[in-house]
Amino acid sequence: MGVTAVLMLPLLLLGISGLLFIYQEVSRLWSKSVVQNKVVVITDAISGLGKECARVFHTGGARLVLCGKNWERLQSLYDALISVADPSKTFTPKLVLLDLSDISCVQDVAKEVLDCYGCVDILINNASVKVKGPAHKISLELDKKIMDANYFGPIILTKALLPNMISRRTGQIVLVNNIQGKLGIPFRTAYAASKHAALGFFDCLRAEVEEYDVVVSTVSPTFIRSYHVDPGQGNWEASIWKFFFRKLTYGAHPVDVAEEVMRTVRRKKQEVFLANPIPKAAVYIRTLFPELFFAVVACGVKEKLSVPEEG
């Protein structure tokens, strides 16, 4: 009996691995069929996440509209996509210069896209500008710039493309947000405010457009780290705040977030929260035990202010 059990274990593991492989392949093929021939607009396509989203959706056969504020980097992304793509299964991406912090040009970009393709099936609002510093040292002009890029720019583009989706009774809008749309972290007042505002807008919009079969999705990772940067090792055991903040800032890799965006589109998910257990717990603690959350955060601020900064 014992020998039989020992022999069965590898076979069981092999069977499970085979089933997982089949599931992943079916999901990959399903994802391609969902976005094939669809017009997909990606803002800030030249960022780490933007590039990965472009790769995933381009491979899936989408008609991409890649937006960014630097033409040379857009062209480099275009060349990279074309060089590895199968021309018989993919479409040539359209490149559009767009700086969402310059809200005066957003309407013109939306018109250009609609004039070119006649419709937009999927809009991925990915652009984001970050700033870090004490609130009293951040100028009002910078506050406005952050709100333009992270809030007003995305909602102007969304409003410009939304009537087309409503008239066709189909479409999906994806907002790539951040954990700071759920809770505020010290020294990021303007950024957190813009993310709270964006999340509130798209949560309201979701209910408004449901009757038109337009899907609104939000994907909120902790932070999106760069390709080759891993969390640094250090002596974090001395402080609960440091342990909490280290877990909070681990972040997600752009590849992982892009794949989650594709899954969100495929499954028409309404809300996705990409985080390890510590940030997830922080969101619930903020809701259920706000005084505890505020005490931990305040402790971290006092500790930071007590340490002299280099330079």
Keywords:
alpha/beta, Rossmann fold, 12% strand, oxidoreductase activity, acting on the CH-OH group of donors, NAD or NADP as acceptor, Dehydrogenase/reductase SDR family member 7C, SDR_family_member_7C, 2 domains, oxidoreductase, NAD, 7 strands, 311 residues
Summary, kept brief:
This protein has 311 residues and is of the alpha/beta class. The chain contains 10 helices and 7 strands. It has 2 domains: 36-223 and 239-275, Rossmann fold, CATH 3.40.50; 282-310, no CATH class.
Task: Describe the overall structure.
- With 311 residues, this protein is of the alpha/beta class.
- It folds into 2 domains: 36-223 and 239-275, Rossmann fold, CATH 3.40.50.720; 282-310, no CATH class.
- It is 56% helix and 12% strand.
- The protein has helices at residues 2-35, 48-59, 71-84, 106-117, 140-168, 189-209, 240-248, 254-267, 277-288, 290-306; strands at residues 39-42, 63-68, 94-97, 122-125, 171-176, 214-221, 271-274.
- The protein has a 7-stranded parallel sheet with strand order 3-2-1-4-5-6-7, sandwiched between helices.
- The radius of gyration is 22 Å and the shape is globular.
- The N and C termini lie far apart (69 Å).
- The model is unreliable at 229-238, 243-248 and 306-311 (pLDDT under 50).
- InterPro entries: NAD(P)-bd_dom_sf, Sc_DH/Rdtase_CS, SDR_fam, SDR_family_member_7C.
- Keywords: NAD, NADP, Oxidoreductase, Signal.
- It holds the Pfam family adh_short.
- GO terms for molecular function: oxidoreductase activity, acting on the CH-OH group of donors, NAD or NADP as acceptor.
- Belongs to the short-chain dehydrogenases/reductases (SDR) family.
